[in-house]
């Protein structure tokens, strides 16, 4: 088992992740990987409150999460890994973690982003990180909720103007 799904969603644990995705995947653990959140007790508490009952939660930085995954710590579990940015996953790949597929959910619009879909807005750094992931052989898809069709993210990313 181990990692059964990987999602980029800036909101991390919220209604779609907590209810729709976790239920659909039958995940036994949500793993939030973020080097900033691990420093904030308030954000960690909010994530603990948002997780579904009966589902375990890990909130880790990239190095600790990668070490735990590579050590097989979660092999007997069904882990749903959630991050805010593709760069987090690039760091994990550079640490030796292998991902088959990454699902892109919500990436919010900001002054520095380009709008690609209704829910996906990408910066230059995000664009570069997505290409690093794809160059490493990772399939990247876009799917907001489980009932939506799965879209190839490489096709969506072609609309980005760098």
From TrEMBL:
Q: Which is a Pfam family this sequence falls into?
A: PTSIIB_sorb
Q: Name one GO molecular function term.
A: kinase activity
**What are the entry keywords?**
Cytoplasm, Kinase, Phosphotransferase system, Sugar transport, Transferase, Transport
Domain PTS EIIB type-4 stretches: 1-162
S-adenosyl-L-methionine keyword on record: no
GO BP, one annotated term: phosphoenolpyruvate-dependent sugar phosphotransferase system
Question: What stretches pass through the bilayer?
Answer: none
Highest taxon, organism lineage: Bacteria
GO cellular component terms listed in the entry, alphabetical order: cytoplasm
**Localization (cell):** Cytoplasm
Name of the protein this chain belongs to: PTS system, IIB component
Q: Which organism is it from?
A: Companilactobacillus nantensis DSM 16982
């Amino acid at each position: 088992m181990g990692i059964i799904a990987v999602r980029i969603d800036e909101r991390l644990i919220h209604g779609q992740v907590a209810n729709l995705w976790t239920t659909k995947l039958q995940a036994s653990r949500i793993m939030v990987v973020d080097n900033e959140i691990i420093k904030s007790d308030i954000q960690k508490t909010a994530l603990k409150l948002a997780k579904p009952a009966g589902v375990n939660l890990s909130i880790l930085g990239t190095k600790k999460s990668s070490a735990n995954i590579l050590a097989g710590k979660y092999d007997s579990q069904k882990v749903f890994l959630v991050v805010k940015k593709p760069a987090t996953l690039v760091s994990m790949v550079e640490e030796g973690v292998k991902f088959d597929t990454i699902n892109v959910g919500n990436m919010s619009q900001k002054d520095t982003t380009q709008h690609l879909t209704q829910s996906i807005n990408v910066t230059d750094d995000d664009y570069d990180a997505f290409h690093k992931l794809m160059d490493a052989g990772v399939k990247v898809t876009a799917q907001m909720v489980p009932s939506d069709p799965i879209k190839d993210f490489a096709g969506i990313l072609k609309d980005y103007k760098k």
